[in-house]
Specification:
6 helices; three-stranded mixed beta sheet; alpha+beta; about 170 residues; about 45% helix; elongated
Amino acid sequence: MKEELVLRDPSFTALIESDPAMKILEVAAWRELLLRERINEAVKSNLLKFATGNDLDNLAEFYGVERENGEKDENFRKRIKAKIVGWRAGGNYRYYALSADTRVKDALVESPVPGKVQVSILSTQLSTTGIPEEELLEIVRNQLNREDVRILTDTIEVVIPIPTAQQTDR
């Protein structure tokens, strides 16, 4: 800003730090910084990766997704992504599995053979064995087998995930 001021009026070349014009420049620079920061925040609030709270709700409305009661931003963001992916063939099963109940933490959709779809459910409230409760599996099963969700030729099976031990070396 100082260089721009000198270009407009060469008499400002000998400004010292205590000069009132310098203080005005500092205030203007600070306000410019705050304005740019607010613009960046506004842009980021329109991106699914960064939106939170009401901004995320507004973004989800564009995709036709509503937040469930008590749903956290992370899970809501995952459902919005699943809805977007759901526009391609078979992607809607994951969206509807995630939307079935707020206790569904994640869903994996696999098709081992054409016409057979296996959906594995990970719950936020795991039982002592690490397996989702049968009640939750039934809720997801009913959701996925709805007439407006299931593809006519698909057989959907909601299965429990099989935990596998993994060794990590650091």
